[in-house]
Design a protein that fits this description.
By secondary structure, the protein is an alpha/beta fold. Helix content is 59%, strand content 8%. The protein has 19 helices and eight strands. A six-stranded mixed sheet has the order 3-5-6-7-4-8. The chain starts with a strand and ends with a helix. The relative contact order is 0.10.
Length: 458
Amino acid sequence: MPKNRRIRVDYISTPLADVPTVDALEDVVNSINSLKEELDSLKEGASGLSGEIIETVKKSISTLTDRINGLEEDKKDLSQKFDSVVGALAATILLTQKVKREKEVDFQVIMKKPEELTFTFDHLGNYEDVKAQLEDYASFLGKIPELKSRGVKLGGKLLICGRPGTGKTTLVYALAKESKVPIIDFQKSLATGPPEDIATGIHAIFKFVREDLNNKPLILFIDNFDALAQSRDLKQSSVLSALLDELDSINLCDHSILVIAATNRPDLLDAAVWTRFDDVISVPLPDVRARAEILHLLLSRLLYEKNIDFPQVSEATENFSGADLENLVSRAVVLLEKRRKKILTTDILLEIAHSMRTEILQRIKEKQLQKRNLQREEYLHQALVQDVVTDDKKYEKLLLTLTKLKSGDSLSKDEILIAKNFEFLTSNPEKSIEVLKEKRERFQRVQETMQKMWGAKT
């Protein structure tokens, strides 16, 4: 069974600035051949496209073909007609979002068998409640025939939330090993690139696990889930749409797949995402007891003084994640080497812990700042959209621009400028139109309600 799949996506080769412009009728006639070459490039690119954009591009190419043929047959007002065809060509190029040719989107399914995994629940601290919840769902993978016979329908989708370093990834890999089922790392399998490429990769990977694995039990792990499932108002709406569609396409009982997503930014997730999961599991920072257990595990292979004060070190590591504690022990070992000592002591652990506290507090501040900046960008986008939906002329202009982008019609100079100003909406015009109309209708309902209230008062 092949693990490698390749998806080919071709883009238009010539940017808009390279499309010839003319001043005289003779120059226009001579430029038709160049326009035909550009059309041939579009046709070649369309042969490799997949997804929703293919029909739009094909329609645009068909329209362009007819219009170029018309240029040769009717020489009247040729200059104006040529400019119109160039505008249509520009719109088609904008649809592809990039001017890079022969771009390939690759993915290689990263699957690990349980015997290849090293983490077990013994490597984790006091997360008994979380472990129990995960084990309950994993146990269903071995009971699918029984569940089907009882008519039970389980989505088999879990969302794990927790701060960075709390052990979310370790928990999932430990679950795969304990359950003796393979695990696919979705994010490592997915190639990076523009939103359309990522959306194509999402469809391909889900198709692979649905159709090529013969219903063998497995865990599909989507780490850093917020990178894919952010608000549909942002640029990556095509990614979100692909993800939602594919999450709906599988379930545990029919496909023997347990989907587990993990995020440290649940605040960024789109509202529609939450309804796709059967359960949400929170992984907190380890408490004093859990930190002591983690330190015991980390120090078990090292030489340390017999009377080491684990409670004191645990108290000194407040707000430390499991990853922070691992880093603490690593730094302590390095410090031992520098001081040419062999036995780890309480004092050394406390010294490192105190030095790390400042770093951790700074990291928390930086995360908070990053969060505020992302929120500020999202608020800016929302403010721009809100300004449009409350203004009839702006709304109609933006709606018309998005509609033309969706259908592949030519854009005027003003519309090209609008598309640039609202770039965060142009990656998926169809979805953006839906969002825009929803916001417009909501605004109009509020206006009607206010008018009724005002009328009642008067």
